[in-house]
């Protein structure tokens, strides 16, 4: 835990007592703050109270003596309308911040020189975050990984000299971190997302821009119009900018040329690494992720040799295009995190011949947007509530069966792929659906897939399993 000492002996109001909110309240108390917390969920309030956190309805609080209001990132700050607690804080003139802001203040107070890499973007954040942390750890550095990737940032070990932080930041977290100041800040891409919480695409982009604008080195992928303009603006403001691209050469930065990542500097270019042998970094989107990771690691002093070694040994992000097993010419890939068609597209684009397991609780639009990938699909194995609708979309374009369950789909896909002599093949779980019709969440679905793959005769597992 990182005790929040910067608010020691101050009155702090807090709203939102879910996982990260409760961790934040405990970190504030550990640092000596006087915390008064609340949540709209009575169970969360009871849990916090049992953990020793002072709780009470913030509508009954005297806000005149409150030094800061800490808001959970899941609670609306601006759109569709501010939460009632936000209105109270603003009326009292109290600053509104989140857990990432508390972290950056502790870092500045206790170890301002310890490297801090922050990652944001609409897509690819988690893979890039995990990849950077893996490279740093593999090079022998003391590495802390947290933020939006699933580990609350204030549960990490406290800042100290030589400790590296790799923090994934959502737009909600950045909106509550007005002084965020990474050593290296990464912006991967911007496409419409979370507009219910930001109102407009421009406001969403403005929030994301804050992360790189406050960085010592801003690493910006310039493959869309919003990020291109952001890179130019941040550079004009005096920040060092490293541009990266998966689609085109850049004059000074890193770019992908097929599977080759090239470094451009001083009018010349040279190759840093060829990603083609690295199964966990297949696809153009992963070329962008790798370029961003390389740029960040270079910015914090990692050698090219250590970077190449870390990239080559990257095990992949669990449930995201994760090779989990192999048998002869067939690789089994867990992409359970692909809970809609857009999220399934990268995996479908990364393999040439696919035995595709898809389905679950359908999202709006189904899989119609994936028709361009249908020629790659040798056969589809459909599960869950979406099976009939997906079958109708596949029609006569793709052979399919309605397998119903994941266990049956894995068994049938493996048998069919084994008989296929066409060369490298993938049995791919990329559902393009939520999991909730059959599973608690996508993680449980992915683990079930791994378990069924591990039970197949003759499969060499590429990851550790509990079985």
Automatic annotation (TrEMBL):
<dbReference type="GO" id="GO:0008360">
    <property type="term" value="P:regulation of cell shape"/>
</dbReference>
<dbReference type="InterPro" id="IPR036565">
    <property type="entry name" value="Mur-like_cat_sf"/>
</dbReference>
<dbReference type="InterPro" id="IPR036615">
    <property type="entry name" value="Mur_ligase_C_dom_sf"/>
</dbReference>
<dbReference type="InterPro" id="IPR004101">
    <property type="entry name" value="Mur_ligase_C"/>
</dbReference>
<keyword id="KW-0132">Cell division</keyword>
<dbReference type="Pfam" id="PF02875">
    <property type="entry name" value="Mur_ligase_C"/>
</dbReference>
<dbReference type="InterPro" id="IPR005762">
    <property type="entry name" value="MurD"/>
</dbReference>
<keyword id="KW-0131">Cell cycle</keyword>
<feature type="binding site">
    <location>
        <begin position="121"/>
        <end position="127"/>
    </location>
    <ligand>
        <name>ATP</name>
    </ligand>
</feature>
<feature type="domain" description="Mur ligase central">
    <location>
        <begin position="119"/>
        <end position="297"/>
    </location>
</feature>
<keyword id="KW-0133">Cell shape</keyword>
<dbReference type="GO" id="GO:0004326">
    <property type="term" value="F:tetrahydrofolylpolyglutamate synthase activity"/>
</dbReference>
<keyword id="KW-0573">Peptidoglycan synthesis</keyword>
<dbReference type="InterPro" id="IPR013221">
    <property type="entry name" value="Mur_ligase_cen"/>
</dbReference>
<comment type="function">
    <text>Cell wall formation. Catalyzes the addition of glutamate to the nucleotide precursor UDP-N-acetylmuramoyl-L-alanine (UMA).</text>
</comment>
<dbReference type="GO" id="GO:0009252">
    <property type="term" value="P:peptidoglycan biosynthetic process"/>
</dbReference>
<dbReference type="InterPro" id="IPR018109">
    <property type="entry name" value="Folylpolyglutamate_synth_CS"/>
</dbReference>
<comment type="similarity">
    <text>Belongs to the MurCDEF family.</text>
</comment>
<dbReference type="GO" id="GO:0071555">
    <property type="term" value="P:cell wall organization"/>
</dbReference>
<dbReference type="GO" id="GO:0051301">
    <property type="term" value="P:cell division"/>
</dbReference>
<keyword id="KW-0961">Cell wall biogenesis/degradation</keyword>
<keyword id="KW-0067">ATP-binding</keyword>
<keyword id="KW-0547">Nucleotide-binding</keyword>
<feature type="domain" description="Mur ligase C-terminal">
    <location>
        <begin position="319"/>
        <end position="430"/>
    </location>
</feature>
<keyword id="KW-0963">Cytoplasm</keyword>
<protein>
    <recommendedName>
        <fullName>UDP-N-acetylmuramoylalanine--D-glutamate ligase</fullName>
        <ecNumber>6.3.2.9</ecNumber>
    </recommendedName>
</protein>
<keyword id="KW-0436">Ligase</keyword>
<dbReference type="Pfam" id="PF08245">
    <property type="entry name" value="Mur_ligase_M"/>
</dbReference>
<dbReference type="GO" id="GO:0008764">
    <property type="term" value="F:UDP-N-acetylmuramoylalanine-D-glutamate ligase activity"/>
</dbReference>
<dbReference type="GO" id="GO:0005737">
    <property type="term" value="C:cytoplasm"/>
</dbReference>
<comment type="pathway">
    <text>Cell wall biogenesis; peptidoglycan biosynthesis.</text>
</comment>
<dbReference type="GO" id="GO:0005524">
    <property type="term" value="F:ATP binding"/>
</dbReference>
């Amino acid at each position: 835990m990182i005790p929040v000492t910067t608010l020691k002996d101050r009155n702090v109001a807090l709203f939102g007592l879910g996982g990260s909110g409760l961790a934040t309240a405990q970190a504030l108390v550990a640092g000596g703050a006087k915390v008064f917390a609340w949540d709209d969920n009575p169970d969360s309030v009871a849990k916090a109270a049992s953990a020793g956190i002072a709780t009470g309805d913030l509508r009954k609080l005297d806000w005149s003596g409150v030094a800061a209001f800490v808001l959970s990132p899941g609670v609306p700050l601006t759109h569709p309308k501010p939460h009632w607690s936000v209105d109270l804080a603003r009326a009292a003139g109290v600053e509104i911040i989140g857990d990432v802001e508390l972290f950056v203040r502790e870092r500045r107070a206790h170890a301002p020189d310890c490297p801090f890499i922050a990652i944001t973007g609409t897509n690819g954040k988690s893979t890039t975050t995990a990849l950077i942390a893996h490279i740093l750890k593999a090079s022998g550095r003391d590495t802390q990984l947290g933020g939006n990737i699933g580990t609350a940032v204030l549960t990490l070990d406290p800042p100290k000299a030589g400790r590296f932080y790799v923090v994934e930041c959502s737009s909600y977290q950045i909106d509550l971190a007005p002084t965020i100041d990474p050593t290296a800040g990464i912006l991967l891409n911007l496409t419409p997302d979370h507009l219910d919480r930001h109102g407009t695409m421009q406001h969403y982009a403005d929030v994301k821009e804050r992360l790189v604008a406050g960085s010592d080195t801003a690493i910006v992928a310039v493959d869309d119009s919003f990020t291109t303009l952001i890179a130019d603006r941040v550079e004009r403001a005096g920040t060092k900018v490293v541009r990266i691209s998966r689609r085109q050469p850049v004059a000074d930065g890193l770019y992908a040329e097929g599977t080759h990542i090239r470094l451009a500097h001083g009018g010349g270019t040279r190759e840093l690494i060829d990603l083609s042998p690295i199964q966990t970094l297949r696809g153009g989107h992963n070329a962008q992720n790798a370029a961003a990771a390389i740029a960040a690691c270079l910015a914090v002093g990692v050698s090219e040799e250590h970077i190449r070694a870390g990239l080559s040994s990257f095990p992949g992000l669990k449930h995201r295009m994760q090779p989990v097993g192999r048998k002869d010419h067939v690789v089994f890939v867990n992409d359970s995190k692909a809970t809609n068609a857009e999220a399934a597209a990268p995996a479908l684009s990364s393999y040439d011949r696919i035995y595709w397991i898809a389905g679950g609780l359908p999202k709006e639009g189904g899989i119609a947007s994936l028709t361009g990938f249908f020629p790659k699909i040798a056969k589809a194995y459909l599960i869950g509530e979406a099976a009939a609708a997906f079958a109708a979309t596949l029609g006569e374009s793709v052979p399919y069966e309605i397998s119903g369950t994941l266990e049956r789909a894995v068994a049938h896909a493996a048998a069919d792929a084994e008989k296929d002599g066409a060369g490298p093949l993938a049995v791919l779980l990329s559902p393009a659906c939520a999991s909730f019709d059959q599973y608690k969440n996508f993680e449980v679905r992915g683990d079930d897939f791994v378990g069924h793959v591990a039970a197949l005769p003759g499969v060499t597992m590429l990851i550790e399993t509990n079985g």
